[in-house]
Write a structure and sequence with these properties.
Distance between the termini of chain A: 20 Å
Largest sheet of chain A: 5 strands, parallel
Number of domains of chain A: 3
CATH class of the largest domain in chain A: Alpha Beta
Shape of chain A: globular
Number of strands of chain A: 9
Order of helices and strands of chain A: HHEHEHEEEHEHHEHEHEH
Radius of gyration of chain A: 22 Å
Largest interface: B-C, 39 and 39 residues
Oligomer: homooctamer
CATH architecture of the largest domain in chain A: 3-Layer(aba) Sandwich
Structural class of chain A: alpha/beta
């Protein structure tokens, strides 16, 4: 932002533009800059970062339009989340789409080679939590992370989780995904020594209240290093995990 | 019930009472009998069972009056729950009261020797849950059960719980007490092979919502054999655990 | 667990295996053992115990695969819960399935002869609660319990319940199932002298809030010996009731 | 209302007032009349009906002022609800106050002789519900009803309630008061053949949620003839019960 | 109940039956009697009272079976509530059914001539509340009450309600039906001098929360004489209103 | 109201009607007048104001009937809200309907030229909020307001909103529409110096709880001048905004 | 904003400042300008507008410090809300404070003469709502509005409200304040033809849920022109009402 | 773990211990090891990490005892959270306590020099949120992080936040703390390109529902990289932020 402003000012000082022209240029700049500033960090500096399209509530035509526009502007990877198989089929005729059915995610372009501090573990309590987990895992992978999947390691069968103690304790970030009582986040949070992102899911019935119980439970975890995202928000967890796993690039 | 009815009818047949008197006696009988039936099971058949006084909302004088009346009628043991230390002090001048401060329970008379199928384990997630646990433990002890206390074995420090695996896996009944996210019940329920009574506590802050989160969490446990009582209801859990631990007497 | 460990150690002491081999064998053992420990109690010691498949969210093919695998491994009885009639039909071509439509349960293999301390009474407030009740009853039967069904004995017609006083008062365990206001649990809990497992159901409308009212109501029962499971969780109640009814085997 | 209008119109027709004066008089009349219409029914027609002062949030001086003003205007009986003993003491120096401590009600003037169709039964589940019950009972008595008190007849000791079957089945109106799970209303509603007014109370702890559970439970009663008032609203129940018990005066 | 008992006792006293036979006869009697006692009040004493079948969740065949059985046993009028038009069509081939589509009610047999203290006013806030209102109105009519319908008189158009002031103020009982904010009950309760039964409906969107807002609002009415039934419970309101409107028969 | 009353009185004074006739005429007048009073302000004084038909739950035939009746009575503009495209198609055969699909609104007659104090800004956080926004915008336009649409300016992309600072700060009234966390209202409320009407929408998933979170969030805005309407209530916001934007006509 | 930017640029062009100095000045400008822009509108343009200090959670010393600083900077009127009498007493020694006890508001400086489009009516349902009403009224008065107070005009005594029909129908803005069922807003919204700001209060007990019921009720009002602020937020309502009442100054 | 096991096995192979002794040693090992594993990571490997004592619910004596025990065992820094000033005073006589009153935190020992990837920004919406913020800030500082405090930058005064854009956009991790509507998290999440930990606070009144509204709002943030901890959980946020800020040590 500073460079652009400085250029305008130098142009003015040196008489290449008038005060009126400088006013006009500057007037639109701050907020555009503000926007670009963030965009830059996302796309400019960390070259090759994917763009994300939230597919729910958009028609196949709309998704196609946005995706093509992004690709035309040099974006190398596009991730489409909440994309049902019907729309995915409609898209494959015109786009080279890599559709991950379990994750309900479509990928256009190449997935970057894994980088970052370490591996992201995506753990679920049950098999019904897998769609949310896959959304998280694919999101993390598309953002350049190595992902380890530990599915169906819920606390009512503790030995299943403990048999994966090595993966848990050597993870860089863990995404703990559970519906019903959501106890997985607390148990993993107590075992692991890394940030744990808890994702409540709407899995369960009766007093599960479509994820509310798991959500409240996870917020009450007394294990250090646990934070929570919205119910079924696999994308948010995968994105944040990738961000934390690339913290060294901030230095 | 049949005997009493038969006596009335014989009295009528033999002219000792009139039809009017018989009608009156029979009219009130079914429900009175119903009442006595239960009382008998509680006090008559299982001799030596304690009577319980819920101390909250009663004055020391009222408690003293009820207790003396019970003792005068042959009750050998009286348990007073939710008894604060101030009232306990007031009672000790006139009654031989064994006051358990942590449990907020007072005991009059002797505690029966432990009997039953096995041992009842009372486990808590944290130290703040101990008052509820002690209410459960003392209730179970007063009803003739051996109690093993495992306090502060919450799931965020899983090794603490697992170091007591022997007690957990050999228990007859387990009372799992936890506030906050209440994950203890699920983890213990997954490990143990006996009935687990989960007691949510009002311990915690914020999204703990005074026990609601732990309650909902415990109800969603997918471990087999887990059931739940009201928030902070240590007495109810101790009483039920004792009942289950004496199931062999039902045979 | 101890035996297996001891064998490895003896092999080491006697030079049949090296320290490296012993390390490898022991490394994977504890948590597997932990798992088997529980499995043993369930299946090993109490021979003939059924395996349970939760049918909801699984395809007929998946259920068939799991069931066949269990049967191939020597399991004698398989219980499939939450199995709709369509999937049941699909299964009957390849499996010898005993389908209980009301309970939405399928049974493969023989139902063990009733054993245990006494009889389990399954009581419902209304006729709409029967599907949950049947899930509980079939679960208990498949786990070797004698079940007495008392349906439509809700408290707004108290005489219907009281005409079954004998069954209620001689039960070993009672499962009280009700939607709407859930008062059945309190009334039965006040009459009976055995553990009462309350199951709220999602029956009702308006302020029934899909079982929440019955759930809260049941948790507030002041009758001794009452505990609660999740809304519509007939399986959980039947499983726990069977566990309590076989407490004598713990001795 | 018609008479007053007619007088104005006659005055106009006969030239005693001008059209402008008639307009002014009529303009303010309808809503004033509306008000008086109701006041008349309450106080005019049914002579001797008590006035009620809601004592909570008013100082002793304010209450004294209102009461004196009412008495000066010919009101024979004044009922002051939610009046704590401190304020009651302050009032007794200047007013001839009959203070009912349990009900937290003060009465000035004479209580009318009981009239109405029959007797109003006020039943409570426990002893902690008695303050609400007394507010209901005193309200009904002050409005000229005979009241029968049945306290501590909760459903967890069904025999206690059933031993009062005569009172319940011969009542004109029943007020069923309960906290916790509120099952009393359903059971009484199923037994009785008269209107049942259910009053949830804030008695209980944990999942009683200060009366919410009892409220929801009572609203779900499937017994015919049950309706519900606000939590702890003894006055409202007593007032409505009295109104129903005097329905014959509507004929 | 007394007569039947007395007959048995006289038979015993006079030697017509033995003590054993008397025991047997009495043994089954109390609870049946308890049931009949209520049934008598409903059907015996007040001859011609209709029987009600709750149609929701029952097949046309089940409804037909129950209805025929009732008619065979001398019941003159049968009311079927929550009966959709499809089932109604199926029923009309075999039963002489008077189907009221708006009320979703079917009537078999004759509707008794209106009796009772006065007229029952059924008022709704909007046109969407009419189905609930019709269920209430038809229920009241079938139970022998004259019903006045005041629809769409919600408080946001106060003049519409006030133009019916005469009906409101001369009613015997008023049923006030409203969704959304439910203010109708308070306004009518403040105007009328008779019992007001408030019925919240699930009409509305957003913060109406399917009737919860109207329910809470109605429970908070500070107008005297207002009580509340469950959301959309037109039947309950109509039944209770009819009961109150026939209070004089209790004398 | 006064004129009509005065006419009646003059008729009486001058002998054209009797006192009885005057009583009758006056009896029904006040509340009808009350109604017309408001109607007058809406339609009489502010000539050309549109009538609104709430289309949800009405058939195309019913809507057509009401619309024609209004037009026959001289109404120049009719707005039909919550009108789905199917009904709109059915209506266009018989009415000259201007259907706005995004808004689900149909307009009959001409839209008045914009008047009022200034411009109404309708801002949404996301694209999914647009249907609610269009309902608000069309409502405001039909009531004679100039509307500026700022869509998809949610706070997670602050620069998008800030690039429209001019529109925001020069608005007469702002309608801030957002689902999910509803932060838009607070941010706009902090920037703008005019009344802000916040409309929560049911957009979002999980802990959005169908608009409840946005609703609560908006009610807590500490920015001055913000008030809130019901979830998804675009019409209410547009109507109120138009009312405020025409405040000068009140002077 | 443009002028300031232009000055900097001219300074640069003319060599009075360097490019570095210009960059620094411009960098902080947009957002500072943004801030000043609003401050200007509040204080600069509309000269004499009062400053508001939220007194809750601040000590008397802190309030004194802020107030003195404001007065030193030329502010003519300071409004302190949520100021209890104890702090008010502490302040009066050093400040010339006009303390309004009912409103819990303190005013320093002169109250501007009433201006604006018309009068603001502040109406309450009961006497307990008066503190919130006074906060609203004093806030509006301090911001230069004429306020009419209509207290205790709740809908359960409709005649009281209707006797003030003139004030209601001639108001510029109405603030409708009510706890319990909050019906006042709907009724007034239906009568009045101006913006109605509804303020739910925490007055009530039981199912009033500390204002939640009134809040939900008010949000569901189907009367046009009604919007809602937070529970007990008298200040917010008074501030917004004043803003609307001065809309003509926006032209 | 392997080393310890290997030692036991070597001891066995070499005859230094018997098989029985080896069994005993191995039996308790896995879970003890499990515990130590985590302890090591926390304290062993990352030398100098502070120990934390949760002060709420502990007496000054208990805190002193624990602290001394830790210090005696070589811990260099002890952080005591939720420590009120009274207890802090009691502790200072025996311990060299650095008490931070705003944070309600006590520190014993030296605070490590800041390390990690970058700076942690702690931002609050209002001044009432500062105690939670200070708990977060002190926790982060004690764990070796540089902290930048940005207090009172709530979104209703957007310019205040934007004037700190540099700090926000260059942060390593941001902790966004807000009560009421919690919009701060969304706005910061939209601006920043780093993980944002949102902390809802119980600040506010009415519909703030003691932090629930802020909590739900924050969970719905659509900005990438935002996660949430429990209401008022400053410690949890500070601890997690520190963990993320030291991610490079995981490599």
């Amino acid at each position: 932002m500073e460079n652009e402003t400085r250029n305008i000012l130098c142009d003015l000082r040196d008489g290449r533009i008038s005060v009126d022209e400088a006013v006009l240029k500057l007037k639109k700049q701050p907020f555009e800059d503000l926007g670009y500033a963030k965009v830059d960090l996302h796309r400019g500096i960390r070259q090759g970062m994917p763009e994300v399209i939230y597919g729910a509530g958009k028609t196949a035509e709309q998704i196609e339009g946005i995706a093509k526009s992004l690709l035309d502007n040099g974006v190398e990877t596009v991730l489409i989340t909440r994309l049902d198989s019907e729309k995915a089929n409609a898209l494959t005729s015109s786009l080279s789409l890599d559709y991950r059915e379990k994750a309900k995610c479509g990928i256009i372009g190449k997935i970057p080679a894994p980088s970052g501090i370490g591996r992201i573990v995506v753990a679920t309590a049950g098999t019904s939590d897998i769609p949310v987990a896959e959304e998280a895992a694919v999101t993390a992978e598309v953002h350049g992370n190595e992902v380890v999947r530990l599915y169906d390691v819920g606390v009512s069968g503790l030995h299943r989780m403990l048999s994966h103690l090595d993966e848990i304790m050597s993870a860089s970030v863990i995404i703990a995904i559970a519906g019903m009582e959501g106890a997985l986040a607390s148990v993993i949070g107590g075992l692991a020594d890394c940030p744990v992102i808890a994702v409540p899911t709407s899995v369960g019935y009766g007093a599960a209240f479509e994820g509310l119980t798991a959500l409240l439970s996870m917020l009450n975890s007394c294990a250090g290093g646990v934070s929570v995202v919205n119910i079924d928000n696999g994308f948010g967890a995968g994105y944040l995990a990738g961000m934390i796993n690339h913290m060294e690039t901030k230095k």
